[in-house]
Amino acid sequence: MRQLVYSVATSLDGFIAGPKDEYDWIIQDPTIDFSEVFRQFDTIVMGRRCYEFMLREGRSPKEFGMKAYVASTTLDAAQHPDVTIISSDLSKAVVELKKKSGKDIWLFGGGSTFRGLLDAGVVDRVELSVIPVLLGGGIPLVPEGRRWPLRLKDSRTFPSGIVSLTYYVATEPQL
Hints:
This protein is an alpha/beta fold. It has four helices and ten strands. The protein has an eight-stranded mixed beta sheet with strand order 5-4-3-6-1-7-10-9. It has a two-stranded antiparallel sheet with strand order 2-8. A hairpin with a 5-residue loop joins strand 9 and strand 10. The longest helix is centred in the middle third of the chain and has 10 residues.
């Protein structure tokens, strides 16, 4: 079965964006092969805020070459033909996506979307690229919620100081 993978850059102090939604602190390391990273996925899932931010930046999920799904109760699907809008029960929709044949599913940004899917028990792996910077504030990697134990799968350090960590999510949360 396909896996849902939360793959995201985070500051050392646990923020996925700065106080003004900025991401200019994410350094580019030429030794990271992003095409290799993207090849493991054929589907991308994101929350509405992340999607709208991408559009404001003049970008589109189409550039990833994947089938894109956006969780939103407010977006009009007719105005966003490049993505599939999921307007209710995101976790159920993700479970159905995981049953289909294909590559893994990339949960792209959106700490709140991640928290909801994590607490629903549908996130399989967490892949963090820890950027060597302390932001002091911003959008947290994970909003408050249940405690979930993780099991280290892999770690890698890059010349830029970026540390890549991959964890499996335990099957049951800790209360």
